[in-house]
Amino acid sequence: MGLCVFYLEVFVKKSVRRAGLSVGLVSAVVLPLVGAAPASAGAAGAWNLAAEGQRICMHPDHGWPRTYAFATVEGTWTAPIEYGIRELPPGSTGVGGTLEPGTNERDPDDGGLAVNGWLDLRIAPAPAGEYTAEVWASDGKKTQTDSLLLVFREGC
């Protein structure tokens, strides 16, 4: 099949910690004074898909018959979250999974986030070019999506 070079780029966005901390502190002090509940009181089911703009590059003649991508969920969720991938090139397949209720928060020291959703991919050969697949996650009430860029070219 020849040698294929694979790379996956994950662009992790830096969070602005000081702004978030300031808003949290102001909310904790001001909202109880005006009789409103703090924002965190109803946020037990607050989660986000943090797939963060992944990219996979492969040779058009070979595809990538066994690889993976991330479907990381961040936050706290009280119902199972199903995740998967769609809109892959013809002949390609992807298998997602289910996350049981839980929590996944960024590390306060380095901003890192544990990968808790893995997509098992079988990417078929395709003509040279770029294809955009869609990573999705749903708790049955809300669905979030992010893109996965598939690049088919020589020299990857």
Features:
mainly beta, six-stranded mixed sheet, Immunoglobulin-like, 156 residues, disordered N terminus, three-stranded antiparallel sheet
Give the SSE map.
Blueprint: E1 7-9, H1 17-33, E2 47-49, E3 54-58, E4 64-70, E5 73-77, E6 81-86, E7 93-95, E8 97-99, E9 102-104, E10 118-123, E11 129-138, E12 143-152
Parallel strand pairs: 3-12
Antiparallel strand pairs: 1-3, 2-5, 4-10, 5-9, 6-8, 6-11, 7-10, 11-12
Overall 3D shape: elongated
- Low-confidence sequence ranges: 1-44
How much is the radius of gyration in Å?
A: 19 Å
- The first-to-last residue Cα distance is 15 Å
Could you describe the largest sheet, including whether it forms a barrel?
Answer: 6 strands, mixed
CATH architecture: Sandwich
- Helical amount: 10-25%
Q: How many strand units?
A: 12
CATH topology: Immunoglobulin-like
Q: What value does the average pLDDT take?
A: 79
Highest-level CATH class: Mainly Beta
Instruction: Give me the CATH superfamily.
Output: Immunoglobulins
Note the total helix count: 1
SSE order, one letter for each helix or strand: EHEEEEEEEEEEE
**Tally of separate domains:** 1
Tell me the fraction of residues in β-strands, as a range: 35-45%
Query: In terms of structural class, how would the helical and strand content be classed?
Result: mainly beta
The strands making up the biggest β-sheet line up spatially as 1-3-12-11-6-8
